[in-house]
Specification:
The protein is α/β, with parallel strands linked by helices. Helix content is about 40%, strand content about 10%. It has 19 helices and 14 strands.
């Protein structure tokens, strides 16, 4: 039976009044009244969402990012901003001040794929959505969406660029990976639908991305233009299926990726600039009349062999409504005005784009107006507690055990000494501090570990090998996560070789925090266990599973080449108590 906290029930029944989010036939009187007042220049500005990246240094006396943002509002009447940082509660006042500087409500958006905490510190950061695929829970997907929405609306943010509906069918994909629910398109749209329902009931606009599908690529569109060479029938059955189903059930916006799909547009034009894909397939064939937004226009995937100013005109001509993060807002606005002036884009077409933007803004304004009179801090206290509990529940239910030959897991008082070698792909990744703290607390002197960024010098390597030889159990813990511009999130060959040498113990265990495909390098290890995120909830859940405190029930949502099929997973019952 489904269980919800009293708080979540109260919030749900309050925000159920936001049913207009699920009904696109809402009144357009406000939209009409605003549209007629806008000049041509102001209309052009409404189609631009600029980047807003506050300083991470909380001690700076003046953060120029906010000053620059206000200048863009006053000079170009931009439609809004994509937020890449900030902290609760300070970000609320900043956004309200920026909102007050604009004569037309601003649309604030962010990549909240993993919750508001992905961009705003002090709010909830959930495990990656592949954890939802491993847990296989539509209820959890709904609750993650709802809590993401409720926290975002409290902050003043009205739109999330999520969920990712890409079907991660390519293990070497360098940019999607655990951002995808699964390699099964049915799981992607089922979980995606539940997540969207939660977001919309919580008052947050949702965005299905990256249309027409970024899952089967080996190129990061931040650095180059991926080309997906497969026939239309195969593309329909895999990549397009989740988008079709989600568009049928309702979503507010679609983000079009910088992808070349010859089966959909034989010219090789990036999807984000392709009239055949946007107007032809998305608008006419699929019947989507909501908001369409490009992926970020600073990405090299769309700028290869393209003049930047021509990109803006081509995107609008293709059917795009919002131009996301142009390199120069001024150049972007001028390009739109030039296109209208030369007749390349009819003013009626421009008005149609602006109308969709204003319709989206109307929804976000209504969501903010429906909030109760209690203080934000009071409401957020409950939401953050609920978020913490839900994030840990998701992490626990996603842990996946793929091998337990000789029963190296779970650990108990008879397990002897455990030596863990933590291998990180780069210095920006966490050192698994929460995992180590929990292991040390429960095992005491029986647990020791070392953290490596690369193969160490000969003296250190000898010490590591000596500790591994003396240990009763050896763990190799890989920490990896997808990140733009980095390439495939794996370990270098020399680290893989070292890991294999360390895993010769009959009771050795390889642990993956993040990228699950990394275990393809260690298929014969006696123990193999996965967590799909690197954040603290995933670390805590992983330690709890290894120590036998929590039940392990996750199922692999993707195929690991040469080793494990989708759906693999060994059940392991938790029985111990304690923290």
């Amino acid at each position: 039976m489904k269980t919800y906290s009293v708080l979540l029930n109260r919030l749900f029944f309050f925000f159920i009044g936001l049913s207009f989010f699920c009904n696109d036939a809402h009144s357009s009187e406000w939209v009409d009244s605003v549209l007629v007042t806008l000049s041509l220049e102001e209309k052009a500005g409404q189609l631009v969402l600029a980047e807003l990246r506050p300083s991470k240094d909380q001690t700076v006396p003046v953060d120029t990012a906010w000053i620059d943002a206000e200048s863009l509002v006053k000079e170009h009447q931009v439609g809004g901003f994509v937020l890449f940082g900030g902290s609760f509660p300070g970000v609320i006042e900043k956004l309200e001040s920026l909102q007050a500087s604009s004569s037309v409500p601003l649309l604030f958006a962010a990549d909240f794929e993993k919750g508001a905490g992905q961009k705003i510190t002090g709010t909830t950061k959930f495990p990656p959505v592949m954890a939802l695929g491993a847990a296989g829970s539509e209820d959890l997907a709904y609750r993650v969406g709802l809590l993401t929405a409720l926290q975002a609306v409290e902050l003043g943010i009205g739109m999330t660029f999520s969920p990712v509906l890409d079907v991660n069918s390519n293990p070497l994909n360098p940019i999607i990976n655990v951002r995808s629910f699964s390699e099964d398109p049915r799981a992607v749209f089922t979980l995606g639908q539940s997540y969207i329902r939660g977001c919309r009931e919580g008052g947050l606009l949702t965005t299905a991305k990256h249309f027409p599908g970024h899952g089967d690529t080996e190129v990061d569109s931040h650095t180059n233009l991926p080309v997906i060479n497969k026939g239309r029938p195969e593309f329909e059955q895999l990549e397009l299926l989740p988008f079709r189903r989600v568009l049928e059930s309702g979503v507010d916006a679609v983000m079009v990726g910088h992808l070349s799909v010859p089966a959909l547009d034989s010219t090789g034009t990036p999807a984000s600039l392709s009239g055949r894909i946007v107007n032809g397939i998305l608008r006419e064939e699929m019947g989507f009349q909501g908001l369409v937004v490009t992926d970020a226009l600073v990405m090299d995937g769309v700028n290869i062999d393209q003049d930047r100013t021509s990109i803006y005109r081509k995107a609008l001509s293709a059917g795009i409504d919002i131009l996301l993060m142009p390199e120069s807002v001024e150049d972007c606005v001028n390009a739109i005005l030039d296109a209208v002036g030369t007749g390349e884009i009819e003013e009626s077409t421009l008005n149609r784009h602006v109308r969709r933007v204003l319709e989206a803004k109307e929804k976000t304004v209504q969501a903010r107006n429906l909030m109760r009179p209690e203080s934000v801090e009071k409401r957020m206290t409950g939401l953050l507690l609920e978020g913490e509990n839900t994030a840990l529940e998701l992490a626990n239910k996603s842990i996946t055990l793929l091998s337990n030959t000789g029963r190296p897991l779970p650990l108990d008082e008879r397990s002897g000494n455990v030596f863990a070698v933590i291998m990180r792909g780069d210095s920006l990744l966490p050192e698994a501090a929460f995992f180590n703290r929990m292991m040390k607390k429960n095992l005491g002197e029986r647990y020791d570990y070392v953290s490596l960024l690369s193969v160490p010098d000969s003296v250190t390597l000898e010490q590591v090998n000596r500790k591994a030889e003396r240990a009763d159990r050896v763990f190799v813990i890989t920490v990896s996560q997808v990140r733009a511009f980095r390439g495939y999130p794996g370990l270098p060959p020399d680290m893989i070789s070292l890991a294999r040498d360390l895993l010769r113990n009959d009771l050795s265990v390889v642990v993956s925090l993040g990228n699950p495909y990394i275990i393809a390098d260690f298929p014969d290890t006696p123990g193999i266990i996965l967590a799909y995120g690197t954040e603290r909830h995933s670390q805590k859940a992983l330690a709890g599973a290894i120590l036998g405190k929590t039940r392990v029930s996750g199922k692999l949502p993707v195929t690991i080449p040469g080793g494990f099929a989708i759906g693999s997973g060994i059940m392991l019952g938790g029985h111990k108590h304690g923290r």
